[in-house]
Amino acid sequence: MAYQIFKNSKNNNTKYKNNNKIEKVGKDMAWCFRNIRRHMCMLMRQNFAKSCEKKLNDQINMELKACHQYLAMAYHFDRSDISSPGLHGFFLRASAEEREHAEKMMTYVNKRGGLIVLSSVPEPLPCFASSLAALKHALQMELEVNRHLLDLHALAGKEADPNLCDFIEANFLQEQVDGQKILADYISQLERAQNDVGAYLFDKYMAGGMHPAK
Fold first, then answer.
1. Backbone angles phi, psi at 166, to 5 degrees
2. What is the Cα–Cα distance from 206 to 185, expressed in whole angstroms?
3. Would you say 97 and 212 are in contact if contact means Cβ atoms under 8 Å apart?
4. 128 Cβ neighbours under 8 A, 6+ residues apart
5. Among 135, 167, 182, 208, whose CB has the most other CB atoms within 10 angstroms?
6. Is residue 70 within 8 Å of 83, Cβ to Cβ?
7. Is 4 helix (H, G, I), strand (E, B) or coil?
């Protein structure tokens, strides 16, 4: 009886070791296939500097940060004690646009044979003292995003990457300027209102997204 128990225990240990070996081989093969796929991706990579790839990943994460902040702002103005449907819709569209920018950049990184690296998104500001404070915060955020875009464009020029320069110029630069102008206009209009009725009318009649229709 004792011999049988010992024999069964030995067989179980052998099976356990064999399973571990199979699992290790499986992981090694998966790692190998990942490396092969990565190598195939690198085969089509041309004139895409690592510095540009890193800066582009930073821009992607900045766009996603803006997306989350606009989403938080949108639902702050959707609260029953705030009830500003105009600003709710405005910031909701702005959030969708920032996400679209990030996705467009991620698609571009893949086209160039790069590697997308997403970082954790910082916690957005949950509420604002007034509509004016929210719009001013949005403008500062857009100026920061635009500054980083201009730095990315300058780096692409320095690295002699005309394709990246064209991608930034064609898809983002003018749109950023348009968005900043709209926010500045809204801030000026709301500053002139100076009372609750003016703020109510501003929210009621504001229309359109961060950027004008094309």
1. -65, -40
2. 11
3. no
4. 73, 76, 134, 137
5. 135
6. no
7. helix
How many other CB atoms sit within 10 Å of the CB of residue 112? 20
Take residue 90 and report the two structure tokens written for it.
Answer: 């405005």
The per-residue pLDDT for range 146-167, each reduced to its tens digit, is 999 999 999 999 999 999 999 9
To 10 degrees, what angle do helices 131-158 and 85-111 make?
10
Predicted model pTM: 0.76
CA distance 93 to 67: 10
Tell the residue number behind the tokens 């501003």, with chain if given.
Answer: 202
CB 91 within 8 A of CB 73: yes
Q: 122: which residues sit within 8 A by CB, 6+ positions away?
A: 65, 68
Kindly give, in sequence order, each residue whose CB lies less than 8 Å from that of residue 171, ignoring residues fewer than 6 positions away: 101, 104
Quick one: CA dihedral 173, 177, 179, 183, positive or negative? positive
131-158 and 50-76 helices, crossing angle to 10°? 170
